[in-house]
Protein backbone atom coordinates (compact mmCIF):
# COMPACT_ATOMS: atom_id res chain seq x y z
CA UNK A 1 0.00 0.00 0.00
CA UNK A 2 1.35 3.47 -0.78
CA UNK A 3 2.91 4.75 2.45
CA UNK A 4 0.94 7.95 2.23
CA UNK A 5 -2.36 6.08 2.46
CA UNK A 6 -1.97 5.27 6.15
CA UNK A 7 -4.77 3.93 8.40
CA UNK A 8 -5.37 7.35 10.03
CA UNK A 9 -5.86 9.02 6.65
CA UNK A 10 -8.12 6.19 5.43
CA UNK A 11 -10.29 6.43 8.56
CA UNK A 12 -10.58 10.15 7.97
CA UNK A 13 -11.41 9.74 4.26
CA UNK A 14 -14.04 7.09 4.98
CA UNK A 15 -15.67 9.39 7.53
CA UNK A 16 -15.66 12.39 5.19
CA UNK A 17 -16.52 10.73 1.89
CA UNK A 18 -18.36 7.54 2.97
CA UNK A 19 -17.64 4.02 1.77
CA UNK A 20 -17.20 2.27 -0.60
CA UNK A 21 -14.52 4.58 -1.89
CA UNK A 22 -11.61 4.44 -4.33
CA UNK A 23 -8.40 6.15 -3.25
CA UNK A 24 -5.29 6.63 -5.44
CA UNK A 25 -1.82 7.88 -4.62
CA UNK A 26 -0.46 10.17 -7.36
CA UNK A 27 3.19 9.83 -6.36
CA UNK A 28 3.24 6.07 -6.83
CA UNK A 29 1.89 6.49 -10.37
CA UNK A 30 4.70 8.96 -11.13
CA UNK A 31 7.22 6.49 -9.70
CA UNK A 32 5.97 3.65 -11.92
CA UNK A 33 6.10 5.94 -14.96
CA UNK A 34 9.69 6.87 -14.12
CA UNK A 35 10.66 3.18 -14.09
CA UNK A 36 9.61 2.83 -17.74
CA UNK A 37 11.39 5.90 -19.11
CA UNK A 38 13.86 3.87 -21.18
CA UNK A 39 11.07 3.18 -23.68
CA UNK A 40 10.72 5.88 -26.36
CA UNK A 41 6.99 6.05 -25.74
CA UNK A 42 4.94 5.03 -22.73
CA UNK A 43 1.33 4.67 -23.81
CA UNK A 44 -1.14 4.18 -20.96
CA UNK A 45 -3.82 1.55 -21.63
CA UNK A 46 -6.51 3.70 -20.09
CA UNK A 47 -9.00 0.85 -19.79
CA UNK A 48 -7.17 0.07 -16.55
CA UNK A 49 -8.19 3.38 -14.97
CA UNK A 50 -9.84 5.91 -17.23
CA UNK A 51 -10.64 8.72 -14.80
CA UNK A 52 -9.82 11.95 -16.66
CA UNK A 53 -7.83 13.31 -13.70
CA UNK A 54 -5.59 10.24 -13.82
CA UNK A 55 -5.26 10.79 -17.58
CA UNK A 56 -4.26 14.41 -16.94
CA UNK A 57 -1.59 13.23 -14.52
CA UNK A 58 -0.34 10.81 -17.17
CA UNK A 59 -0.20 13.55 -19.80
CA UNK A 60 1.68 15.90 -17.47
CA UNK A 61 4.28 13.14 -17.16
CA UNK A 62 4.58 12.78 -20.94
CA UNK A 63 2.67 9.52 -21.04
CA UNK A 64 0.58 9.02 -24.20
CA UNK A 65 -2.65 7.08 -24.26
CA UNK A 66 -4.34 4.07 -25.82
CA UNK A 67 -8.12 4.21 -26.23
CA UNK A 68 -10.29 1.21 -27.00
CA UNK A 69 -13.70 2.81 -27.44
CA UNK A 70 -15.27 6.05 -28.55
CA UNK A 71 -15.81 6.89 -24.89
CA UNK A 72 -12.13 6.43 -24.16
CA UNK A 73 -11.16 8.63 -27.10
CA UNK A 74 -13.46 11.38 -25.78
CA UNK A 75 -12.02 10.92 -22.28
CA UNK A 76 -8.50 11.38 -23.63
CA UNK A 77 -9.53 14.56 -25.48
CA UNK A 78 -11.32 15.83 -22.37
CA UNK A 79 -8.14 15.27 -20.38
CA UNK A 80 -6.16 17.47 -22.80
CA UNK A 81 -4.64 14.92 -25.18
CA UNK A 82 -4.35 16.29 -28.70
CA UNK A 83 -3.96 14.82 -32.16
CA UNK A 84 -1.71 15.46 -35.08
CA UNK A 85 1.71 15.00 -33.52
CA UNK A 86 4.03 12.05 -34.00
CA UNK A 87 3.98 9.75 -32.15
CA UNK A 88 0.26 10.34 -31.90
CA UNK A 89 -0.85 11.19 -28.37
CA UNK A 90 -3.91 8.98 -28.84
CA UNK A 91 -4.06 5.63 -30.64
CA UNK A 92 -7.29 3.68 -31.01
CA UNK A 93 -6.88 -0.07 -30.53
CA UNK A 94 -9.72 -2.47 -31.28
CA UNK A 95 -10.79 -5.55 -33.20
CA UNK A 96 -13.72 -3.82 -34.86
CA UNK A 97 -14.95 -0.35 -35.70
CA UNK A 98 -18.58 0.33 -34.87
CA UNK A 99 -20.18 2.98 -37.07
CA UNK A 100 -20.18 5.99 -34.67
CA UNK A 101 -16.58 5.24 -33.67
CA UNK A 102 -15.44 4.97 -37.29
CA UNK A 103 -17.04 8.33 -38.10
CA UNK A 104 -15.35 10.09 -35.17
CA UNK A 105 -11.98 8.40 -35.69
CA UNK A 106 -11.97 9.59 -39.30
CA UNK A 107 -13.07 13.10 -38.32
CA UNK A 108 -10.30 13.38 -35.70
CA UNK A 109 -7.72 11.36 -37.69
CA UNK A 110 -6.92 9.17 -34.68
CA UNK A 111 -4.37 6.53 -35.71
CA UNK A 112 -5.90 3.06 -35.56
CA UNK A 113 -4.24 -0.06 -34.24
CA UNK A 114 -6.18 -2.57 -36.32
CA UNK A 115 -7.05 -5.97 -34.88
CA UNK A 116 -8.92 -7.17 -37.99
CA UNK A 117 -8.57 -6.83 -41.74
CA UNK A 118 -12.17 -5.61 -41.94
CA UNK A 119 -11.11 -2.56 -39.95
CA UNK A 120 -8.47 -1.73 -42.56
CA UNK A 121 -10.98 -1.94 -45.41
CA UNK A 122 -13.68 0.02 -43.57
CA UNK A 123 -11.21 2.73 -42.59
CA UNK A 124 -9.41 2.79 -45.92
CA UNK A 125 -12.66 3.14 -47.87
CA UNK A 126 -13.44 6.47 -46.19
CA UNK A 127 -10.05 7.72 -45.03
CA UNK A 128 -7.19 7.01 -47.43
CA UNK A 129 -3.82 7.92 -45.95
CA UNK A 130 -5.05 7.20 -42.41
CA UNK A 131 -2.27 6.14 -40.05
CA UNK A 132 -2.55 2.53 -38.93
CA UNK A 133 -0.76 0.02 -36.77
CA UNK A 134 -1.22 -3.71 -37.18
CA UNK A 135 -2.03 -5.61 -34.03
CA UNK A 136 -0.85 -9.12 -34.77
CA UNK A 137 -1.90 -12.29 -32.96
CA UNK A 138 1.33 -14.32 -33.13
CA UNK A 139 -0.48 -17.64 -32.59
CA UNK A 140 0.27 -17.97 -28.89
CA UNK A 141 -0.65 -16.04 -25.78
CA UNK A 142 -0.41 -15.94 -22.02
CA UNK A 143 -2.46 -14.43 -19.20
CA UNK A 144 -2.93 -14.47 -15.43
CA UNK A 145 -6.25 -16.10 -16.33
CA UNK A 146 -7.52 -17.63 -19.58
CA UNK A 147 -9.77 -14.57 -19.74
CA UNK A 148 -6.78 -12.24 -20.00
CA UNK A 149 -4.91 -14.33 -22.56
CA UNK A 150 -5.10 -12.30 -25.78
CA UNK A 151 -3.11 -14.50 -28.17
CA UNK A 152 -3.52 -17.88 -29.83
CA UNK A 153 -6.33 -19.35 -31.88
CA UNK A 154 -8.87 -19.20 -29.06
CA UNK A 155 -8.45 -15.46 -28.70
CA UNK A 156 -10.54 -13.01 -30.71
CA UNK A 157 -7.77 -10.41 -30.65
CA UNK A 158 -5.50 -9.22 -33.39
CA UNK A 159 -4.87 -10.11 -37.01
CA UNK A 160 -3.82 -13.74 -37.35
CA UNK A 161 -0.07 -13.85 -38.12
CA UNK A 162 -0.56 -15.86 -41.31
CA UNK A 163 -2.90 -13.16 -42.63
CA UNK A 164 -0.17 -10.51 -42.61
CA UNK A 165 0.01 -10.44 -46.46
CA UNK A 166 -3.75 -9.78 -46.63
CA UNK A 167 -3.43 -6.94 -44.13
CA UNK A 168 -0.60 -5.40 -46.14
CA UNK A 169 -2.63 -5.76 -49.33
CA UNK A 170 -5.50 -3.88 -47.69
CA UNK A 171 -3.06 -1.16 -46.63
CA UNK A 172 -1.69 -0.85 -50.16
CA UNK A 173 -5.14 -0.99 -51.77
CA UNK A 174 -6.42 1.96 -49.72
CA UNK A 175 -3.19 3.91 -49.48
CA UNK A 176 -3.15 3.62 -45.70
CA UNK A 177 0.03 4.69 -43.89
CA UNK A 178 1.57 1.84 -41.90
CA UNK A 179 3.12 3.24 -38.70
CA UNK A 180 4.04 0.14 -36.80
CA UNK A 181 3.55 -3.39 -35.54
CA UNK A 182 1.95 -4.21 -32.22
CA UNK A 183 1.61 -7.35 -30.13
CA UNK A 184 -0.16 -7.78 -26.82
CA UNK A 185 -0.47 -11.42 -25.94
CA UNK A 186 -2.02 -11.03 -22.50
CA UNK A 187 -1.83 -9.68 -18.99
CA UNK A 188 0.71 -11.13 -16.59
CA UNK A 189 4.06 -11.24 -18.35
CA UNK A 190 6.45 -14.12 -17.84
CA UNK A 191 9.91 -14.12 -19.38
CA UNK A 192 9.65 -17.36 -21.33
CA UNK A 193 6.73 -16.01 -23.33
CA UNK A 194 8.36 -12.63 -23.56
CA UNK A 195 11.40 -13.86 -25.47
CA UNK A 196 8.99 -15.76 -27.72
CA UNK A 197 7.02 -12.54 -28.45
CA UNK A 198 10.19 -10.57 -29.13
CA UNK A 199 11.35 -13.23 -31.60
CA UNK A 200 7.91 -13.26 -33.23
CA UNK A 201 8.09 -9.47 -33.60
CA UNK A 202 11.50 -9.62 -35.30
CA UNK A 203 10.24 -12.32 -37.69
CA UNK A 204 7.10 -10.33 -38.39
CA UNK A 205 9.00 -7.15 -39.18
CA UNK A 206 11.22 -9.14 -41.56
CA UNK A 207 8.12 -10.41 -43.38
CA UNK A 208 6.69 -6.90 -43.60
CA UNK A 209 9.98 -5.74 -45.12
CA UNK A 210 10.14 -8.65 -47.55
CA UNK A 211 6.62 -7.78 -48.73
CA UNK A 212 7.83 -4.28 -49.58
CA UNK A 213 6.52 -2.32 -46.60
CA UNK A 214 8.25 -0.28 -43.93
CA UNK A 215 7.51 0.58 -40.28
CA UNK A 216 8.50 3.43 -37.97
CA UNK A 217 7.77 1.79 -34.63
CA UNK A 218 6.98 -1.39 -32.74
CA UNK A 219 4.84 -1.74 -29.63
CA UNK A 220 5.52 -4.25 -26.88
CA UNK A 221 1.89 -3.99 -25.78
CA UNK A 222 1.09 -4.09 -22.07
CA UNK A 223 0.75 -6.96 -19.67
CA UNK A 224 3.48 -6.18 -17.14
CA UNK A 225 2.49 -7.92 -13.93
CA UNK A 226 2.56 -6.54 -10.41
CA UNK A 227 3.08 -8.49 -7.17
CA UNK A 228 -0.52 -8.97 -6.01
CA UNK A 229 0.43 -11.66 -3.48
CA UNK A 230 3.03 -11.47 -0.80
CA UNK A 231 6.09 -13.27 -2.18
CA UNK A 232 5.25 -12.53 -5.84
CA UNK A 233 8.39 -11.34 -7.59
CA UNK A 234 8.42 -7.81 -8.95
CA UNK A 235 9.02 -7.70 -12.69
CA UNK A 236 12.57 -6.78 -13.66
CA UNK A 237 11.84 -3.77 -15.87
CA UNK A 238 15.45 -3.38 -17.02
CA UNK A 239 15.51 -6.99 -18.23
CA UNK A 240 12.12 -6.56 -19.88
CA UNK A 241 13.37 -3.45 -21.68
CA UNK A 242 16.60 -5.13 -22.75
CA UNK A 243 14.73 -7.97 -24.48
CA UNK A 244 12.55 -5.54 -26.40
CA UNK A 245 15.38 -3.18 -27.13
CA UNK A 246 17.37 -6.04 -28.68
CA UNK A 247 14.37 -6.89 -30.88
CA UNK A 248 14.03 -3.25 -31.88
CA UNK A 249 17.73 -3.03 -32.77
CA UNK A 250 17.57 -6.12 -34.98
CA UNK A 251 14.59 -4.67 -36.82
CA UNK A 252 16.24 -1.25 -37.17
CA UNK A 253 19.44 -2.84 -38.52
CA UNK A 254 17.45 -4.71 -41.12
CA UNK A 255 15.38 -1.68 -42.14
CA UNK A 256 18.45 0.57 -41.99
CA UNK A 257 16.74 3.33 -40.02
CA UNK A 258 15.75 3.92 -36.42
CA UNK A 259 12.64 2.24 -35.06
CA UNK A 260 10.78 3.64 -32.04
CA UNK A 261 9.89 1.31 -29.19
CA UNK A 262 6.54 1.78 -27.43
CA UNK A 263 5.18 0.10 -24.34
CA UNK A 264 1.49 0.04 -23.48
CA UNK A 265 0.93 -0.86 -19.85
CA UNK A 266 -2.24 -0.36 -17.88
CA UNK A 267 -1.90 -2.34 -14.66
CA UNK A 268 1.78 -1.60 -14.04
CA UNK A 269 1.23 2.15 -13.92
CA UNK A 270 -1.83 2.29 -11.68
CA UNK A 271 -2.65 -0.99 -9.89
CA UNK A 272 -0.54 -0.45 -6.80
CA UNK A 273 -1.47 3.21 -6.45
CA UNK A 274 -5.13 2.43 -5.79
CA UNK A 275 -7.21 0.88 -3.07
CA UNK A 276 -10.86 0.24 -2.41
CA UNK A 277 -12.10 1.17 1.01
CA UNK A 278 -15.13 -0.62 2.44
CA UNK A 279 -16.81 -0.91 5.81
CA UNK A 280 -17.74 -4.16 7.55
CA UNK A 281 -21.50 -4.03 8.08
CA UNK A 282 -22.23 -7.60 9.22
CA UNK A 283 -20.35 -10.64 10.49
CA UNK A 284 -21.83 -14.12 10.69
CA UNK A 285 -20.99 -17.79 11.09
CA UNK A 286 -22.46 -20.23 8.59
CA UNK A 287 -21.54 -23.71 9.83
CA UNK A 288 -17.78 -23.93 9.55
CA UNK A 289 -17.41 -20.62 7.72
CA UNK A 290 -17.03 -17.17 9.19
CA UNK A 291 -18.17 -14.30 6.97
CA UNK A 292 -17.39 -10.59 7.06
CA UNK A 293 -19.83 -8.69 4.85
CA UNK A 294 -18.68 -5.32 3.55
CA UNK A 295 -20.47 -2.49 1.77
CA UNK A 296 -18.50 -2.96 -1.50
CA UNK A 297 -19.54 -5.64 -3.96
CA UNK A 298 -18.43 -7.06 -7.28
CA UNK A 299 -20.23 -4.18 -8.93
CA UNK A 300 -17.31 -2.14 -7.56
CA UNK A 301 -14.47 -4.65 -7.79
CA UNK A 302 -15.19 -7.55 -10.14
CA UNK A 303 -11.69 -9.05 -10.41
CA UNK A 304 -12.25 -11.80 -7.81
CA UNK A 305 -15.63 -12.85 -9.21
CA UNK A 306 -14.45 -12.68 -12.81
CA UNK A 307 -10.92 -14.09 -12.70
CA UNK A 308 -10.38 -15.27 -9.14
CA UNK A 309 -8.21 -12.13 -8.98
CA UNK A 310 -6.36 -11.92 -5.66
CA UNK A 311 -6.17 -8.68 -3.68
CA UNK A 312 -4.46 -8.33 -0.35
CA UNK A 313 -7.03 -7.31 2.28
CA UNK A 314 -6.12 -5.39 5.41
CA UNK A 315 -8.20 -4.26 8.36
CA UNK A 316 -8.35 -0.80 9.90
CA UNK A 317 -10.02 -0.93 13.34
CA UNK A 318 -13.25 1.04 13.52
CA UNK A 319 -13.78 3.70 16.21
CA UNK A 320 -14.45 2.00 19.55
CA UNK A 321 -13.48 -1.47 18.23
CA UNK A 322 -10.66 -3.54 19.75
CA UNK A 323 -7.19 -2.63 18.43
CA UNK A 324 -5.91 -5.13 15.85
CA UNK A 325 -3.06 -6.23 18.12
CA UNK A 326 -5.58 -7.55 20.64
CA UNK A 327 -7.51 -9.66 18.15
CA UNK A 328 -7.18 -13.33 17.30
CA UNK A 329 -6.56 -14.20 13.68
CA UNK A 330 -9.71 -15.56 12.07
CA UNK A 331 -10.12 -17.41 8.77
CA UNK A 332 -12.68 -15.16 7.11
CA UNK A 333 -14.73 -15.26 3.94
CA UNK A 334 -15.02 -11.66 2.74
CA UNK A 335 -18.19 -10.96 0.79
CA UNK A 336 -20.23 -8.02 -0.43
CA UNK A 337 -23.82 -6.80 -0.34
CA UNK A 338 -25.05 -7.99 -3.75
CA UNK A 339 -27.96 -10.37 -4.10
CA UNK A 340 -25.70 -12.89 -5.82
CA UNK A 341 -23.79 -15.85 -4.33
CA UNK A 342 -20.68 -15.05 -6.34
CA UNK A 343 -20.29 -11.69 -4.58
CA UNK A 344 -17.28 -12.97 -2.66
CA UNK A 345 -13.83 -11.33 -2.68
CA UNK A 346 -12.02 -14.37 -1.33
CA UNK A 347 -12.45 -16.82 -4.19
CA UNK A 348 -10.34 -18.52 -6.79
CA UNK A 349 -10.98 -18.73 -10.50
CA UNK A 350 -13.94 -21.05 -11.01
CA UNK A 351 -15.73 -19.71 -7.95
CA UNK A 352 -14.07 -21.80 -5.24
CA UNK A 353 -14.59 -19.84 -2.02
CA UNK A 354 -11.49 -19.43 0.12
CA UNK A 355 -10.69 -17.83 3.49
CA UNK A 356 -8.34 -15.07 4.44
CA UNK A 357 -6.65 -14.95 7.85
CA UNK A 358 -7.59 -11.55 9.22
CA UNK A 359 -7.53 -9.98 12.68
CA UNK A 360 -11.17 -10.92 13.47
CA UNK A 361 -13.10 -8.22 11.57
CA UNK A 362 -15.85 -6.46 13.50
CA UNK A 363 -18.74 -4.32 12.35
CA UNK A 364 -17.48 -0.78 11.87
CA UNK A 365 -13.95 -1.81 10.80
CA UNK A 366 -12.67 -0.72 7.42
CA UNK A 367 -11.55 -3.43 5.02
CA UNK A 368 -8.99 -2.25 2.50
CA UNK A 369 -8.64 -4.01 -0.86
CA UNK A 370 -5.11 -3.35 -2.06
CA UNK A 371 -3.68 -2.95 -5.56
CA UNK A 372 -7.06 -2.15 -7.05
CA UNK A 373 -6.05 0.95 -9.02
CA UNK A 374 -6.16 -1.06 -12.27
CA UNK A 375 -9.38 -2.68 -13.49
CA UNK A 376 -11.15 -1.58 -10.31
CA UNK A 377 -13.25 1.54 -10.81
CA UNK A 378 -13.03 1.18 -14.58
CA UNK A 379 -14.81 -2.20 -14.46
CA UNK A 380 -17.49 -1.10 -11.99
CA UNK A 381 -21.15 -1.43 -12.87
CA UNK A 382 -24.55 -0.37 -11.62
CA UNK A 383 -25.64 -3.94 -10.84
CA UNK A 384 -28.29 -4.12 -8.12
CA UNK A 385 -28.91 -0.43 -8.94
CA UNK A 386 -25.89 0.62 -6.96
CA UNK A 387 -24.48 4.02 -7.93
CA UNK A 388 -20.81 4.25 -8.94
CA UNK A 389 -18.79 5.33 -5.94
CA UNK A 390 -16.46 8.28 -5.54
CA UNK A 391 -12.76 8.37 -6.46
CA UNK A 392 -10.15 10.38 -4.55
CA UNK A 393 -6.60 11.30 -5.51
CA UNK A 394 -4.06 11.90 -2.76
CA UNK A 395 -1.09 13.99 -3.86
CA UNK A 396 1.56 15.57 -1.66
CA UNK A 397 -0.61 15.52 1.47
CA UNK A 398 -3.65 16.91 -0.34
CA UNK A 399 -6.76 14.92 -1.23
CA UNK A 400 -8.95 15.76 -4.20
CA UNK A 401 -12.28 14.26 -5.21
CA UNK A 402 -11.71 13.20 -8.82
CA UNK A 403 -15.13 11.64 -9.25
CA UNK A 404 -18.11 12.28 -7.03
CA UNK A 405 -20.45 9.48 -6.06
CA UNK A 406 -23.20 8.87 -8.60
CA UNK A 407 -26.71 9.44 -7.28
CA UNK A 408 -29.65 7.09 -7.56
CA UNK A 409 -31.56 9.96 -9.21
CA UNK A 410 -28.94 9.96 -11.98
CA UNK A 411 -29.56 6.27 -12.56
CA UNK A 412 -33.30 6.76 -12.73
CA UNK A 413 -33.03 9.80 -14.99
CA UNK A 414 -31.92 7.66 -17.94
CA UNK A 415 -35.25 5.90 -17.84
CA UNK A 416 -37.36 9.07 -17.56
CA UNK A 417 -38.29 8.91 -21.22
N1 LIG B 1 -2.78 -3.23 -24.63
C1 LIG B 1 -3.81 -3.98 -25.08
C2 LIG B 1 -4.04 -4.09 -26.51
C3 LIG B 1 -4.64 -4.64 -24.17
O1 LIG B 1 -5.64 -5.40 -24.62
C4 LIG B 1 -4.41 -4.51 -22.78
C5 LIG B 1 -5.27 -5.15 -21.81
C6 LIG B 1 -3.32 -3.70 -22.37
C7 LIG B 1 -2.53 -3.09 -23.32
C8 LIG B 1 -2.99 -3.48 -20.93
O2 LIG B 1 -2.75 -4.65 -20.23
P1 LIG B 1 -2.15 -4.55 -18.75
O3 LIG B 1 -0.80 -3.89 -18.85
O4 LIG B 1 -3.07 -3.70 -17.93
O5 LIG B 1 -2.13 -5.95 -18.24
N2 LIG B 1 -9.50 -6.81 -16.66
C9 LIG B 1 -8.34 -7.69 -16.60
C10 LIG B 1 -7.29 -7.27 -17.57
C11 LIG B 1 -7.80 -7.21 -18.99
C12 LIG B 1 -6.76 -6.63 -19.91
C13 LIG B 1 -7.30 -6.36 -21.25
N3 LIG B 1 -6.33 -5.80 -22.13
C14 LIG B 1 -7.81 -7.70 -15.18
O6 LIG B 1 -8.47 -7.15 -14.30
O7 LIG B 1 -6.78 -8.32 -14.89
TrEMBL record:
Q: Quick one: which residues bind pyridoxal 5'-phosphate?
A: 223, 264-267, 375
Biochemical pathway: Amino-acid biosynthesis; L-lysine biosynthesis via DAP pathway; L-lysine from DL-2,6-diaminopimelate: step 1/1
Q: Name one GO molecular function term.
A: diaminopimelate decarboxylase activity
Q: Which InterPro entries match?
A: Ala_racemase/Decarboxylase_C, DAP_deCOOHase_LysA, De-COase2_C, De-COase2_CS, De-COase2_N, De-COase2_pyr-phos_BS, Orn/DAP/Arg_de-COase, PLP-binding_barrel
Read off the CDD domains from this record. Answer: PLPDE_III_DapDC (cd06828)
Which residues are involved in binding substrate? Answer: 267, 303, 307, 340, 375
Q: Where is the active site?
A: 339 (proton donor)
List required co-factors. Answer: pyridoxal 5'-phosphate
All copies of the Orn/DAP/Arg decarboxylase 2 N-terminal domain together span 38-271
**Known catalytic reactions:** meso-2,6-diaminopimelate + H(+) = L-lysine + CO2
What keyword terms does UniProt attach to this protein?
Answer: Amino-acid biosynthesis, Decarboxylase, Lyase, Lysine biosynthesis, Pyridoxal phosphate
Q: For this chain's UniProt record, which GO biological process terms are given?
A: lysine biosynthetic process via diaminopimelate
* Keyword RNA-binding tagged: no
- UniProt xrefs under PROSITE patterns: ODR_DC_2_1 (PS00878), ODR_DC_2_2 (PS00879)
- Which residues are reported to carry the modification N6-(pyridoxal phosphate)lysine? 47
- Would I find Amino-acid biosynthesis among this entry's keywords? yes
Q: Which superkingdom is the protein from?
A: Bacteria
> Where in the numbering of this chain does the Orn/DAP/Arg decarboxylase 2 C-terminal domain appear?
23-373
What does it do?
Answer: Specifically catalyzes the decarboxylation of meso-diaminopimelate (meso-DAP) to L-lysine.
Task: State how it assembles.
Answer: Homodimer.
Q: What is the protein's name according to its record?
A: Diaminopimelate decarboxylase
Q: What is the protein's species of origin?
A: Roseateles toxinivorans
- Gene encoding this polypeptide? lysA
